[in-house]
Every structure is written in C-alpha cells, then in structure tokens.
Amino acid sequence: MTIIDTPGILSGEKQRVDRGYDFTGVLEWFAERVDRIILLFDAHKLDISDEFRRSIEALRGHDDKIRIVLNKADMVDHQQLMRVYGALMWSLGKVLITPEVARVYIGSFWDQPLRFDMNRARLAKVHAYIISSLRKEMPSMFGKDSKKKELIKGLNALYAEIQREQQISPGDFPDLREMQEKLAAHDFTKFHALKPRLLETVDRMLAEDIAQLMSMIPHEQTEQKEDGVVIGGAFDGLEQSPFGYGRGEGVDAG
C-alpha cells in the first residue's frame, strides 16, 4: 500500500505564492489513479481557502473515492465538537455539489500514546489550588492591579503554603517563572473558586482508576506474546475507520 501525502493547502496571502507547477493538475492526475482520497480537516482549523476549494473541485468525478475526515476531535469537548461538525458541514455544502449530505468521519488519527496521565492529573489539581488561592486574595473593589502584581511576585510563598497545607510534593508544581509570566496576562477576578467535588474525583482517579488501568497492561502484553500476533499500531482497527478497504461502499455507505 502506498500513501501519498499532498503538500499543505495554502491559505490567506500564501495562496498568491506560485508553487512552480500546476497543483490542481497534479491532484487530478493522482485522483484518476488512486483507490482512496482522504480530505482531512482539523477540528480547530475548518476554513476552506480558495486553493482548497479548487483542489476539491479538481476531484470531481471521483466522489466514490473521497472520504471526509474530521481529525484531532480529541482536542475539543463534546459541545465544541458539535459546533465544529456543523460548521464543517456548512462549509462543505458550499463546495461539494451533491444532492446528499456528505458523510464525515470523526476521530483522532495519530499514533502518539497517552502518557504522563498521573503527572497531568496532579498538575491539574495543583493548578486548581493556585488559581483559587489567587482569586480569594483579590480585593473586590480597589487596588486590583497592585494586588495582582504583589501576588505574582510572591507566588513562591504561595507555592510553599499550598505545599504545606495540602501535603503536595514540590515536583507537582508548575515552573515558577513560567507560571508568573502566564499569570501576568490574566484577570485574577475571573478565576473560579475551588470545587471540592472535582478534586475528590481527581483523587479517586489517582487512587483507584489509574491503578486498575496499570494492572491491565501486563495482562495485555502477556496475551500478545502468547498469541504471537502483533496487536496495535497505526493500522489497528481499520474496520472502524474510513481508511479500511471497502469502507463507505455498498451497504456500508450509509
């Protein structure tokens, strides 16, 4: 199997840059010869530039080969994903001349493993303590700017206080200098108060859920060795994705 990744579609002022060759002509040549055409959209970047529109128009006549994929769906929450999906369908409706609504596959197609889950959970917990403490120290009326500068300057003392009161390891705190730089751009009065119920959920995840997941890993590795079959990888589960052979054809088209 040969996978051809086209150069990035240009947008904005870059569309006026001469590529030095007939880009749409090249797409037409490949479209006639390939078995599958994947139009890949990022969940956080849905604009269809003029060049992208011309590229899609160059693929007309090969509708049976085209699959539309909304990638990086894990970067937005469910409500945002619905808005993104609607915006994509609206944009495609202006470009695709078809009587039926185009089917869009939603997923996150990358091979990067989810790592450092426990570190991220601890960091989120510490972050909640820091933000809520800063919000609590802010005055309700006057002197907000001066108090903000004072709190940022004394962030190290706040770290020590949270560490002592909550029994948190120093390694779980974000970098002091980087945190001070980021806080300078935010309005402390808009920070949220601490929500104990959410912290309890994080603690329960760290104490129970993560431990349960970690105990499952050796069992899965043992099963893979016994079967002698390679499991996982970039092409695992193709039957559930638009990249599989025969996907979107026949009874599977609906």
What tags apply to this protein structure?
single chain, 254 residues, mainly alpha, Rossmann fold, Topoisomerase, domain 3, 2 domains, three-stranded parallel sheet
Please give a structural write-up.
It is found in: Endosome membrane. Residues 1-153 form the Dynamin-type G domain. It is a peripheral membrane protein. One of its GO terms (biological process) is endocytosis. There is one protein chain. The protein contains 8 helices and 3 strands. With 254 residues, the chain is mostly helical. It folds into 2 domains: 12-112, Rossmann fold, CATH 3.40.50.300; 117-204, Topoisomerase, domain 3. A 3-stranded parallel sheet has the order 1-2-3, with no helix packed on it. α3 links the parallel β2 (66-71) and β3. The chain is elongated and about 65 Å long. The protein starts with 22 loop residues before the first helix and ends in a 27-residue tail after the last helix. The relative contact order is 0.09.
